[in-house]
Amino acid sequence: MPLKKILTANIEKQEEQKVSLLGLPESTLECILERLSPAEVCVMSEVCTYLRDRCRGDNLWKKHFKQTWGKVISDSAYREWQWHLAKRKRQDLFNEGILNGSLGSFQGVWPSLCLGSFLENSGQLSSSIVDDSIMALYMSIHSGKFWFPAQVFKNGGSILCDALLSYNYRTNTFTARHRHGGWQMISENVTWDRLRAPPIEICCPHFLHISDCLDDLKPGDHIEIQWRSCKEVAYNWWYAVIGHLESCDKHENQCRCQYSDILIVDFNNYPSNSLFRRTMLNRKVHGEQSNIRGGGFYGGIRKLQNEEEITRWKKLRRTHNLEPIG
């Protein structure tokens, strides 16, 4: 057989054996899509109707969402997103005018009222099923249009404050605004390592966290504690360690500090002569307590159970001589 015919026959055989992307088993196609980046999935969704539906599925985007935003987005942020969708659908249903700009939800009661989240342009939402997808939420966050609630480490990592965050994909950083006191800017170019999803849900930063660990706290335990300079401002969270009573010799087998009504809280990032280095609280009081020495008010306490959380506080905070600012 002539060489040309042999080559032609081989080419035709290879053509017959080719399998198109759409001809792959669903499990294989799913495996391929999972290995694509979010940007590549979006490109793939424009190929045809079949791939559009597959590339916009929640099962696929849940994995991308968790991988990208999982450490900064909480369930409360997702509920805020659902609130915006519900409001838009209600406006569509009753033919109400769409409010562009700062369309947001509010939490708390006056005067302790704070913004829960907002969309810069609610007109981008429509009543189509796509807006209910995880993909739509992902893209709204990535584009910076959806301002979501999270927490920001400030003052060299010595305190945590509640804020609203907007992502800047050009710089891979965030812009943060206070969730109270209007629209006061915290800072721009906030890096990922300064953010976290709120580990507990409090309706408004002005509200007291009800402690559930006071009876169990003992020397050496790491905690986060609410503090504010006056009752008119919101709480921030401070990192501290439970200390020993002055009368305790700190002997492990003889220490009885855990059974005392007096709770010693040490803020070791402050110098030893600072009024804020150490405070005494009554563990039987579950409400707000004043700081007699340094002023201000202490709120709820959250015990840190996770070594990763403790390590992060230690890594971010730095020794400074500043007194707390409300």
Automatic annotation (TrEMBL):
Residues of the F-box domain: 18-64
SUPFAM superfamilies, A to Z: F-box domain
SMART domains: FBOX
Domain of life: Eukaryota
PANTHER family: ESTS AU081301(E20138)
The protein's name in its UniProt record: F-box protein
Lineage: Eukaryota, Viridiplantae, Streptophyta, Embryophyta, Tracheophyta
